[in-house]
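pasting for the record
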Amino acid sequence: MTRVKIAFVASGGAARGLAHLGVLRACEELGLYPEIFVGASAGAIVGATYGQDIPLDVLLDAYRLPWRRRHHGPRLHMATFLGAPSRRELGDPGHLLSGAFSIGRLERYLRLHLPINDFRRMPRPVFVTAADIDTGERVVFGPGYEEDTPVSDAVAASCCVPGLFRPYRIGKRYFVDGEVVRTLSADVAVQAGANVVIISNIYRPERGHEGGRSIARRGIHSVLRQSLSVLLTEKERRGVELLEQRFPHVTFLDVAPDLGPYGYLNRFSARSVVMRGYGTALRALATAKEQRVFDKYLPADADYVDVEAAATLAC
């Protein structure tokens, strides 16, 4: 028999990714403490910070009104991401025209402010995913994978939204947002030994109310946001279903808060987004606790590492 090992797997979502902090708040209140963190884009930032014991209140403090702040932790705002071209990019016209901004500014900020910038020194396993733009393959940064890469570089690569940012260079390879390949890399959490995987997915499509104003009448941004949410949610659902079939001994808990009309760049709605994540997670995880999901014990010889065959099925 072996004890339950919880993993937290988080999607991207830019400012909407703040809902992940609400999900983690619910975990703390219910006494659930993940031991493994996997993330892409916004989820990578959450994993790389909370996963090395930066308190949740410190992370939330960045989005409080200035006179209500109590800490001096990292403060990630729009200006932290949108950087000017580097000398290397200016000397490479092709690369310069591959995106509007450089993500290197985020890497520099994280390098200066992360207490630990080495995956091998993290207090618990943290995994970050990105996509190799030349091969189209998923690349995993973290213990047992590309562990020599600094955390700041890995997170910058994972946050590199195609078109908005130029592909991020690490060594001789170029990377873009990890969600280009898979919305969620839950298989990485299983391989790391998790038998309960909490999935925080912010792409739940908005549900229009009968008689209410159609999303089609709210402008192009609303239509694009809804279309992206439908696409990525369906991709995530199918991936989780396949993983459940492959690993029946693992419990996958899908927490998908309804974030309504809040946009991907609207950080001024931080409190509302966090609270929606918190409320959805509290209900879903409390129900799972009542069903004694976290009290189950599994056979000690359960196969946690045979996930290569399922890699193409993972979300």
